[in-house]
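COURSE: Structural Biology Practicum
ASSIGNMENT: Worksheet 4, Part C
STUDENT ID: 0417
INSTRUCTIONS: Below are two proteins. For each, the amino acid sequence is given first, followed by its structure token string. Answer the questions at the end about the second protein only.

PROTEIN I
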Amino acid sequence: MVFLFCLLFFYYCNTSFDYELYFLLISSQNISTSLPTEFTKLPYLQLLDLSRNYLRGTIPPEWATMRLSNLSLMGNRLSGRFPTALTKIATLLYLSIEGNRFSGPIPKEIANLKNLDKLDLSSNDFTGHLPAALAKLTNLTYLRICDNNFTGKIPNFISQWTQIERLDIQGSSFEGPIPSSIFALTQLRDLRISDLKGGGSTFPSLENMLKLSILVLRNCLIHGKIPNYFKDMMYLNTM
């Protein structure tokens, strides 16, 4: 299988004719190798899916020149700090590096990805506080940062994600309580927060989230009564 992987690169990256390759999907092929720099020789490439393989190492710095809109590297064995090369691909709309071995803090340069619509950083070993630079990703409709080792509280700047429809913050070592600024996220359809540490709090203000269909607030140290406004949430089916 590795031979076929390399053969594909040789064919598409070294042909003498002008081949406009826009999509490349090599998912679930048990490929075990490092990521090649040759993808940069595909100037028209927009979607690259290398998910569910055994890719190792990190992202080559040469990838910073690519013009991808969709990149999935989920379910591999990539490691090291958050790849700075990715923060330079400003054309990205969708980025998933879920299920790898990346570590360290989320860099402030992530603000360069201002066009991002969907971002998944789950199931890595990211640490530190969420950088304020994330607040600049105002086009986000989907964000998952589960299963990491962040510190501090869920920041109030989440109120800047006014377009977000799914927010998943489960098992990421944050401290409670859920910030009051969450009330601004009126487009939410799916909200999942779990396993907060520290002191408890009353039920967060969710009365503006009339589009919610899924709500998970597990082990969030919430006390008191469930608010009456839930009877007005006509789409809520999982709680």
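PROTEIN II
(use this one for the questions)
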Amino acid sequence: MSTTIKTALITGGSKGIGYGVAEALIKDGIKVAITSRTQASANEAAAELNKIKEGYAIGIESDVRNLASQEKAVKTILSAWGRLDYVIANAGVGHFAPIQDLTSEQWQETIDINLTGTFNSIKASYEQLKETQGYFITISSLAGTNFFANGGAYNASKFGVVGFTQAIMMDLRKDGIKATTIMPGSVATYFNGHSPSAKDAWKIQPEDIGQIVSDLIKMPARTLPSKIEVRPTMPA
């Protein structure tokens, strides 16, 4: 390995939860590669992150729906830093509508990004995480165990992420790889076209999820919190 500094891949890391996780990991001395579907947005976010610690962030254009794209992202990290220790599968999308109005395109995009994207993320990084005895963390949602009206596509994808992560946890730990799913409630992000404002002060903040990821990585090797539910202390 070309560096002893640990590294992380964060999908959908140009804003919101992914960006908050990237900030936390850089402050912990971990180099981060953030992905976005456009190189411009990935580069812009990486430039801001490098203000925390110069040379600790790179931006990569990648689409989690495509396994080859994820494999290319991993190769880019290895070319830059020579190792991969942590993968945070964060990229997500939400379409909310009753089944009568939910289109097949909306269904497919939700499943492809939220669920298949998670599958592609571990398939692309498995060999490297096995080598470094690393950590695979998925960002699911409380919608992964709590169904609601208009949530057919989103619930299906997030229930799937929770089940998938818990199942592969049983597989991966045999290779020394930890796996955890984090299930946040309301988070102040740009998700689904929302623009965070002062009205979101009651919500979980992206940096709060970043702290959880940071704490997970610091847990003793013998201990694995495999599923974490996170809620605002006092909902509006």
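ANSWER KEY EXCERPT:
Q1: The longest strand covers residues 178-184.
Q2: The beta strands are 7-10, 31-36, 57-61, 86-89, 135-139, 178-184, 227-230.
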